[in-house]
Design brief:
The complex is a heterodimer of chains A (about 280) and B (about 350). Chain A is of the alpha/beta class. Chain A is built from 11 helices and 13 strands. Chain A has a 6-stranded mixed sheet with strand order 2-1-3-12-4-13, with helices on both faces. A 5-stranded mixed sheet of chain A has the order 8-7-9-6-10, sandwiched between helices. A two-stranded antiparallel sheet of chain A has the order 5-11. The radius of gyration of chain A is 24 Å and the shape is globular. The model of chain A is unreliable at about 1-35 (pLDDT under 50). The chains are: A alpha/beta (about 280), B alpha/beta (about 350).
């Protein structure tokens, strides 16, 4: 009796599974057609803490869903992102300029289309600030909102004459935001902080007392802001996605997503070659 | 009562040995097999004896505070109250990643999860008996409570402990507090909502010092703190209604008299909503109840801070303060309430949010 019932159930399950599989295949057909009209914008930025990926995705998707079948996909780690750049020919990528320049040494099949802008500028500078004017970097704990490799790279830019061995000595305390890094110095939780000029300005406005206790030890050269890049074959869908990003500052939801990313808008990347024949970035 | 890790439990080895010997005796049934079994038993007994000698030597060497345990290798014990909780597992992962960067192959880390452990003190006592550790990192109150009862001579570093103030002056105890300093919270308030001037706080006698410190910090930020001391839960709502008429925002601080239950908290939020007064809080759980802004500690950062404190101690550097405030913040914003109250939000502050509620509405 028991085995008969089990047999009946298993046959029923088999039929149900077969029907479900057929339904899935049929349902997939239109989505295959749709997928040709959909596009993913992948995002990875070592300047932004990955704990903010969810809020970025929500904000960008809310804007993009109004514009077409686009989706925003932040990526947690560099290796995965670089694999996507190589393998996903039908995507658009948001990448930090620092990372993009590193890709130039290896395989980089992409071309830059847009660059981020904040308060009319497509560059920013990082400052190393400390509580003690005579602080030396070897013994420092430096609070920073960027990744360790990026922070070391910025330090080497601030101290071009220091050896890599010296620049490897400070400890980094990775914090979520620039203002966290600055306040960490103010509260004695770190010896120094790497922060943008804008964050320093913000602190000076918000909390003059704490700002006045900080000493600027050095500053980086102007660093270029975030890029939007694509594989060199520009399909109509990629062009539409890039155009949609370029127009973000024209809508309320677009502006909000830009603000969450720390930008006000995008500008077209100048593709005219420099005097040496290389494209301007 | 404090137990020092010197009560070595070696009985297990003897009892195992006794059981083994008695089983051998029972197998001696005479006849031709007797001699063979006798020979085998002697060989096995000899092996067992050698094994016991080896174990005892190892145990003895461990008792010498690890002097012979991989010289040059620092040993760390990570005790997690409940690794299945995300905030605790994230703290542990951040700690291990950061400390490994500093020490690489010259560090050995043992981890223990006390989640299903009903006798955590025994578990930890056994671990401390078997190995010497250069530092112990405790995540959560159960972990810290268990190790505090044993009172090891090793430095203890902790995070995610609500009653962290109890350990401020305890020798050899270091840690990261569970909430963002009031000064930093007020700075974030002003960054997001530059127009706020008067911040109301309901507090009990337990939080007088917090209010005093916050008031001093607020003055530097051009903010005025208007405090209302609550003597009992019964008067809280009445005092809240009086305070809400005088302030731009109500700032919730962690206070068991003011927030005695979920129901009393909800009543506070309802009263604030009637006055159209935004509520700022220290925990994202209040966003669901109607808070506009929440400034909480960033959990991965607390793990990294604990690792840097441990690193300093392993390098024999004295930590200036035994307990640090969290260096990182996790910010939640209720955009639905921002719009409902028509608040002046600094859009440039949005690049600091971790979570936005109701932005799509």
């Amino acid at each position: 009796m028991f085995s008969t019932i089990r047999l009946k159930i298993s046959r029923l399950r088999y039929k149900a599974a077969a029907c479900a599989l057929l339904a899935l295949l049929l349902a997939a057909l239109p989505s295959v057609g749709l997928s040709q009209d959909s596009l993913t914008i992948y995002f990875y930025n070592p300047e932004i803490n990955t704990t903010r990926n969810v809020v970025l995705k929500t904000a960008f998707d809310q804007y993009l869903q109004e514009q077409g079948i686009f989706q925003f996909q932040p990526v947690d780690n560099r290796q995965t992102f670089e694999a996507l750049i190589v393998n996903d020919l039908n995507a658009v990528f948001m990448i930090s300029n620092w990372h993009y320049e590193q890709l130039q040494d290896g395989l980089n099949p992409t071309s830059a289309a847009l660059r981020g802008v904040k308060n009319g500028s497509n560059t920013y500078r990082k400052f190393l600030v400390a509580r003690k004017a005579d602080a030396t970097i070897e013994a420092m704990t430096i609070a920073t909102s960027g990744s360790r490799p990026l922070s070391r790279s910025i330090l080497s830019d601030i101290y071009p004459n220091q050896t890599p061995q010296t620049l490897a000595k400070p400890n980094f305390l990775i914090v979520p935001k620039d203002i966290d890094a600055l306040m960490a110095v103010g509260f004695g939780l770190a010896d120094a902080a790497l922060a943008t000029e804008l964050s320093l300005e913000t602190l000076s406005t918000l909390y003059t007392n704490q700002y006045q206790q900080l000493h600027i030890l050095g500053e980086s050269r102007p660093l270029k802001r975030l890029l939007v890049v694509y594989h060199k074959e520009l399909t109509p869908l990629k062009a539409k996605a890039i155009n949609t990003l370029g127009n973000m500052s024209e809508s309320r939801k677009g502006k909000q997503a830009l603000n969450i990313l720390g930008l006000n808008g995008w500008q077209q990347v100048d593709k005219k070659p420099n005097k040496d024949g290389r494209p301007k970035q | 009562m404090n137990l020092r890790p010197n009560n070595i439990r070696t009985g297990r080895y003897h009892s195992d040995d006794d059981n083994y010997r008695s089983s051998i005796d029972k197998s001696n049934t005479g006849g031709n097999r007797h001699a063979v079994i006798e020979l085998l038993s002697r060989i096995l007994l000899l092996s067992m004896a050698l094994l016991l000698v080896s174990c005892t030597q190892n145990l003895g060497s461990n008792l010498n505070k690890g002097k012979n345990e991989s010289p040059g290798i620092k040993k760390i014990l990570v005790i997690n109250t409940n690794r299945s909780l995300e905030r605790y597992s994230v703290s542990q992962a951040s700690f291990i990643e950061t400390i490994n960067l500093a020490w690489e192959s010259t560090l050995s880390i043992n981890t223990v999860d006390l989640h299903h452990d009903n006798a955590p003190i025994d578990t930890l006592q056994d671990m401390l008996n078997q190995h010497h550790y250069d530092a112990i990192y405790c995540i959560g109150a159960k972990a810290l409570g268990a190790i505090d009862y044993i009172d090891p001579e090793t430095p203890v570093i902790f995070s995610s402990v609500l009653n962290w103030r109890r350990f401020i002056n305890q020798p050899n105890y270091y840690g990261v507090a569970s909430e963002v300093p009031p000064e930093a919270q007020l700075t974030w308030f002003k960054h997001f909502f530059p127009a706020i001037k008067k911040v109301g706080v309901l507090y009990s006698a337990n939080n007088r010092k917090l209010l005093k410190d916050a008031s001093q910090a607020a003055n530097k930020l051009s903010i005025q703190i208007i405090g209302e001391e609550v003597s009992s839960e019964a008067n809280t709502l009445e005092q809240a209604n009086a305070l809400l008429q005088k302030v731009d925002v109500l700032w919730l601080v962690s206070d068991s008299t003011v927030l005695s239950s979920a129901e009393s908290a909800q009543q506070l939020f309802d009263a604030a909503n009637e006055h159209k007064t935004p509520v700022f809080s220290y925990n994202p759980v209040f966003i669901e109840m109607g808070a506009v802004l929440s400034i909480a500690a960033d959990v991965p950062t607390t793990g990294r801070q604990a690792a840097l404190i441990t690193n300093s101690l392993l390098n024999a550097r004295n930590e200036q303060t035994s307990v640090q405030y969290p260096a990182g913040s996790s910010i939640s914003l209720n955009m639905k309430k921002v719009l409902a109250y028509d608040l002046e939000l600094n859009s440039n502050a949005l690049d600091s949010v971790n979570d936005i509620v109701g932005e799509g509405e």
